[in-house]
Predict the structure of Plasmid stabilization system.
Amino acid sequence: MIGLDCLKQPKQNIMPPCNDCESPVYSMYLIRVKSEVYKEDLPILPSFIQGTFADICEVLKRDPIGCCGLLSKNKGGKLRGYRSISLDYGGIAYRIIYRICDRPAPRRVEIIAVGEHDVAYENAQGRVI
């Protein structure tokens, strides 16, 4: 849906780099999504953002730091250790807030909030463990 070439790569343990990614992916990350994201966040978002969420999860499985060229930043303050992906749709800024967990195994990405910019950050701060 978002047209990233890295989503077209075959799913295997070692994948070649896509046109947007800087390095090959050696193992995929497990994606964990807080239940609040499905219950509270996604239902109130535009259908395009809802549909794009599955694509973003695929990107995060393969490249949670580089995000295949999507704008992704480390967060500070109460969200230190978390990252965000920026999406703009219809002149509105949306964010996906997540963290990367390499230990203990399995390697995983935990998504804690999705929404319009300010709402996503407010929700994320309330959901931090």
